[in-house]
């Protein structure tokens, strides 16, 4: 594990973006303003111009939207497959591994912001990557909706594996930020339902939404980080666990039993308020007997994997994820 020093600074690109931008007044934001902000932000993240920051997709993969019929609702997913004739994973194969991905953001975010890493996984593993365009937080939609979306999509694809061209015996999950919370809970649900997962990858995970969410040294140390602030996290917490709900239902750190889960790779950028969330979760997994590799990226900020254009360490993290999943899916 790398040591974190007080002299670490975010990459220059992140500092420039932060200097040019203006953080919204999160505490004063109304529901209508939140929806307007979210729509505008997601349009920006999905634009071609944003590729300079979010990265250009791997040409060895095809990308398309697909509608999934779930109980009582339909949901869009973004599907990444190896391009025809690319490497050993042509698009005509029906036995490719499955990577179920959930993007971060909580009340803002889109699967498109993860095109860079997901297209690379699809081309290089090779695999079918299904990224869930889950429901986003607002005053009417708690975080449990995203948990349901992630789990329901995972079950749907596995149950219809032949239609998706995947081998259900080689299934993994991969999440970022609040998406890691969704996939960590999916790994627990998978164990309880007998669905075999080969691995789970959790990048800058948010795994504690209880009253202790802010009681970590990294929260205080990086309260005003350029890509995630404590003020923003308080808005997330307010919407995620409305009064009267049990926050443990969206807090895998406090699951009753973390034994027997798929081996985990926990990726922690050190300049992140949530860094200690990831460290504590890796420790709890190991204490329960679940294999967990914790890798820290000194000088990287929250959400760095979605910003390879301004955070060079994203490439090293991507390579580690590919290597980890390739090993887990072998055989």
Walkthrough of the structure:
With 331 residues, this protein is of the alpha/beta class. The protein has one domain (12-329): Rossmann fold (3-Layer(aba) Sandwich). Helix content is 36%, strand content 20%. The chain is built from eleven helices and eight strands. It has helices spanning 12-20, 31-45, 51-54, 115-124, 144-159, 161-164, 178-193, 217-221, 230-240, 275-287, 313-329; strands spanning 61-70, 73-82, 96-102, 128-132, 166-176, 199-203, 264-271, 292-301. An eight-stranded mixed beta sheet has the order 1-2-4-3-5-6-7-8, sandwiched between helices. The longest helix has 17 residues, at 313-329. The model is unreliable at 1-6 (pLDDT under 50).
Mean pLDDT metric: 92
Provide the domain count.
1
What does the oligomeric state look like here?
A: single chain
Specify the helix fraction band.
25-40%
| Annotation field: number of helices | 11
How many angstroms separate the termini? 29 Å
Q: What would the principal axes of the Cα set say about the shape?
A: globular
